[in-house]
Amino acid sequence: MKFRFLWVGKTRDPNYKALQQEYLKRLEHFVKCEVVEVRDSEGSDAKAIEGNRILEKLNHSSFVCPLDIEGRGMSSTALAAEIDKWQNSGRKEVTFIIGCADGVSPQVAEYAGLRLSLSFLTFTHEMARVVLLEQLYRAYTILRGYPYQR
Description:
The protein is of the alpha/beta class. 42% of the residues lie in helices and 22% in strands.
């Protein structure tokens, strides 16, 4: 299985960048990973423009999982169970999408197999990336019985 991370904008803060790279490196012990960044936009139509950029980069055969505050919240063990289900069902690729500050466009949301909420709290995009990567790594350590999750 492969995880694709499709997100709007670049990680500019070097501290978040370092954490992002660290968790990607750890996660790649379990699953192939690819990060795709799309250019961000400003203005009233930014969500639609960025949505089109996301759709251009989206592998339409991938299982799509946009992060959405109104999405399904789950515990780390529930996320681990979901990943296990994906692996056992033969999923080839799962794409996690972090859209703009207002979320993803309706056109992108149409592809969602699972809308995932990290929290009811609001995070910066850079922090959300790190939290997502850490939780995916944690899920794999749960599945493998590694002591990290304790």
